[in-house]
Amino acid sequence: MSLPHALLTALIERPSSGFDLAARFDKSMAYFWQASHQQIYRELARLEEAGWVQSSVDESGRGGRKVYEVLAAGREELRRWVAEPTDPRPLREELMVRLRADAAVGPCGLQHEIARRLALHQAQLAEYQTIEQRDFAPGNDHRAQRLQHLVLQAGILMESMWCEFSERALAILNEPEPEAGAGSPAADQTPGPASS
Amino acid sequence: MSLPHALLTALIERPSSGFDLAARFDKSMAYFWQASHQQIYRELARLEEAGWVQSSVDESGRGGRKVYEVLAAGREELRRWVAEPTDPRPLREELMVRLRADAAVGPCGLQHEIARRLALHQAQLAEYQTIEQRDFAPGNDHRAQRLQHLVLQAGILMESMWCEFSERALAILNEPEPEAGAGSPAADQTPGPASS
DNA sequence: CGGGGCATGTAACCTGTTACATGATTAG
DNA sequence: CTAATCATGTAACAGGTTACATGCCCCG
């Protein structure tokens, strides 16, 4: 969906080969967009066919290293795309399905899994906060830098939310039950979210 | 990935036809898992082939209405799956790509899009809060109900986060710029998130 | 008898994942 | 020479989306 434009952005930030892009996607874009090297090669070929980027073979280095640069048409396309309206794509969160399933069939030991995830999210949050303190000093007023800080803050908000959520989930799942309850009681009539 | 198990859960809550399931997915599961009717039919056929559900044609109603019920093996499979460990699947958020692109090529009018989204998230948040007050009275101690409440709260946390984020983004994007800045200045060297 | 909603599907396509294939350079 | 790393790809598949096809029943 937005892979081509993510690549254009990355190439504007720095012209690179497919291999470099694959490595950089693991670093700076990793937590809000990912792509395997196969996808990247496939997409770069399309971008070139569309006339948005241009490749030149770098003879100096290793064999067959193709460096891509963004052309004017690509820059134009990127600017067009940035302002294009798109609805937020709905969530698709497996864990919620699990919780609902647990509610339907009764306790399944889900709390271990949630505890494991809580630890993961705490670790990730700590990492982001470290990066924030390292790379974003209080007094930066450059627009581009403030936007990049904002993107990092989104990651922080997200991980905080998951920690909060995991703790609430554990509070419910770890509660001692009155009786070791059978399969599934009267779990019909889901009042759940939405409707209206 | 978890569509088969989402279907099993929904069918345990209430045996239904594919058509009904498609309608219910639009209601109670809509905000954390979606499926088109084509997917649902495809998947129900697989579930039946696997011996997890059983269909019976309902002659009384409209022609060819196939009602599915979960078999013991399906219930077993669902319990197994609930406790199965899986890592949280990484984010894939188009808007972040847009912000980064904006940072790379300069202002593109992104604030209109963000303002539009803020309104959407505020509306969704209000809707969830209405549902919460309507369906979840303070004194409910049934485990299943508390879990369903938790899932709704996740939606509320999520929408609150997006509102907060959108407001921060607008604060930066609406800022008056010193000069109407050219294309892209020295936006190399992305310090961005991750790396560790 | 014709249109609209109920109900079930098929086919084609796009994106993303996994596995495999190939060659060139460099370090030991 | 061999193994690791750099670097580019192909092929097959799985999940999800869009468009299209089909038939029944009820209402006007």
Concise structural overview:
2 copies of one chain form a homodimer. The first copy, chain A, is mainly α and 196 residues long.
Q: How would you portray this structure in words?
A:
The structure is a homodimer of 196-residue chains. Chain A is mostly helical and 196 residues long. Helices cover 59% and strands 7% of the residues of chain A. Chain A contains 7 helices and 3 strands. The first copy, chain A, has helices at 3-13, 18-27, 37-49, 72-83, 94-105, 110-135, 143-173, and strands at residues 16-17, 53-58, 65-70. In chain A, strands 1-3-2 form a 3-stranded antiparallel β-sheet. In chain A, α1 packs across α4 (72-83), α2 crosses α3 (37-49) and α6 runs antiparallel to α7. Chain A is elongated, with a radius of gyration of 23 Å. The two termini of chain A are 30 Å apart. The model of chain A is unreliable at 181-196 (pLDDT under 50). Chains A and B meet through α1, α4, α5, α6 and α7 of A and α1, α4, α5, α6 and α7 of B. The structure holds a DNA duplex (28 and 28 nucleotides).
Could you name the key traits of this structure?
7% strand, DNA-binding, 59% helix, 7 helices, 3-stranded antiparallel sheet, homodimer, 196 residues, mainly alpha, disordered C terminus
